Amino acid sequence: MRMEPINRISEKGLLVWRIYGVFQTLIAVVIGIGASVINYFIGNFIWLYIVVGVVILLMAYFLIYLFPKVRWMRWRYEVREQEIELQHGLFVVKRTLVPMVRVQHVDTEQGPILRKYDLASITISTAATNHIIPALLTAEADELRGRISVLARVAEDDV
Amino acid sequence: MMFNEKYKLHPISAIINFIKVLKDMILPFIVVVTVNGFGGSRDSDGWPSFITYSIYAVVLIFLLVSGIVKWKRFRYWFEDGELRIEYGLFVKKMRYIPFERIQSLNYTEGIFHRPFGLVKVKVETAGGGPTEEADAVLTAITKDAAEQIKREMIQTKSKQPGELNEAIQHEVVLTEEARPIFTMSIKDLIVLASTSGGVGVFFSGLAVFAAQFSNIIPYEMIYDEIVVFIRFGALIIVLGVFFVLLVAWVVSVFLTLINYYNFTISIEDNEIVITRGLLEKKKITLPLSRIQGVRVVENPFRQLIGYASIIVDSAGGSLEEKDEKIRLLPLVKKTKIHSVLEQIFLDLDLEPNFITVPKRSRKFFYRLDFLWIIPVSTTIIYFFYPFGLLSLILLPLSYIFGMWQQRTAGYAVNGPHLVMRYRNLSKVTIWMEKKRIQSMTERMTFFQKRKNVSSIITTIKSGVSGSTAIVPHLDKADAERLINWYQPTKSNTIQKEKEQPIV
């Protein structure tokens, strides 16, 4: 068996994903409330309230608790001298190998929520593909970006 | 550099510009004309139609003038190892293209070019970012002028001290002459047209046949009074569809003949040169160094009659032709593939020993289809009870199809080359060089994990974006072998081998 990549993404990333989950659940709650209000005026079926409630509870469980946790557990990466290896996936586990010589450029990106937690995501671009490491500590991300771009500079080939 | 003369395009390019714009707007134009143009004459007084006609006239004259202005303002010249272009009326635009950035020169001879011995030259560069427009088109210049561009390019490139290799290549260029490798006969062309567009005709013909049995369709369920109408109508519709498709087929055969007439491939100094066309003679040059992958594609119909087509993925290219998948051989007899590919790509192993997928991964090939087939046919059976049962045929069909896919899927590794074979509908065999593969991904679902299999996905550059190839449900050990082969740190031996210039 191949060794798994060593590095994990920041533990705060898990927190951020949970926050995303909260937002998604909130949207579901709003829709659920809307549906319930309509239901109240039109049919007032009891079972519909129950369905809405259960769906929201399940979504909260999956989106806030389970999915972020599994996704975080799965997320691993490793930047070696000649290649970058990523492994991630919730239902489908993907393990991607990107040779350093193929790397064209590296970007870091920081949205408002990521910034609040001092996180940044890294995008590694080859001529044909993009690979994202979603949440790293800003300092770590900057360091990694620098390292990859130095390592990638030894590229001997075009395209 | 010495005195740099500025060249103009041939005056005919004004006409070509005009016609090109006209061609682009012919459809909206026709719509406008049919909607209100000629209908306007029915109005009581002639004024409105006069106004509309004069508007058309003004538009046409404007287009003609703008075509002439475009030609008038266009200049190109050679300076400092660059091809420089200047154009535009109000906003003067300049474009400088360094010769070493030029990937290829494409020549097209349209019907307007032929009588004057002219040629349209498209200068293609690698064109990095999506916003970067780095191509240039010289609408019409004489063949001598086109030769001159090529000469200048070769001269500049050979002066580059850093690109010694390139220089040597181009020494060869001038001496080595074109060596034709493949031509397509008229018969091939007809087969090509029929097997790509003919499927629809076949099925609609079948539908006409099937309509004869329309009395078993339970029309009584619908409406007694309109039964006759529906029966008749169904036949009419089916016949109509058949004829439309027949016409479409004839047209497609005709167009294919015009477009691919005299299709020839030759090799010229590390470039593949494809020429084709009856009315518009097209010449595409494709540097071998730009080719990322070679695919042999066999759709089921062609596979039956022993034909395949060969497509190459080429890097770079302009945005308008988004995926640069060039049909290297639109159609070729399977038995001839080897002899053709051997001549172009010298180091490909054309008969690799494929490692196929294990038996235990069989169910992955059809199980997913059952997920949609079962609810769909249940619904159909529920609504159309006796005849709906026919939809159950989908199950064995998709099973058989899955088995077919399973038997096709495989890979082979051969030194620096990876060969992947898989089938969606068409069977695809793709050769890739390791250093051309942008990334490799191993994908494993929960169910795959239980059976210890996983899929391998590779991405190569094709045009400005990428294209992927996937061998599904490989034995986990095989998948890991592939990843290990691809991993740079683990396979230094292969990396250190002398790198081949082509795929």
From TrEMBL, chain A:
Alphabetized UniProt keyword annotations: Membrane, Transmembrane, Transmembrane helix
Domain YdbS-like PH: 72-147
Protein name per UniProt: YdbS-like PH domain-containing protein
Domain of life per record: Bacteria
Record's keyword annotation contains Iron: no
Residues that span the membrane, as ranges: 20-40, 46-67
Family annotation (Pfam families): bPH_2 (PF03703)
Statement: the UniProt record of this protein carries the keyword Transmembrane helix: yes
Family annotation (InterPro entries): YdbS-like_PH (IPR005182)
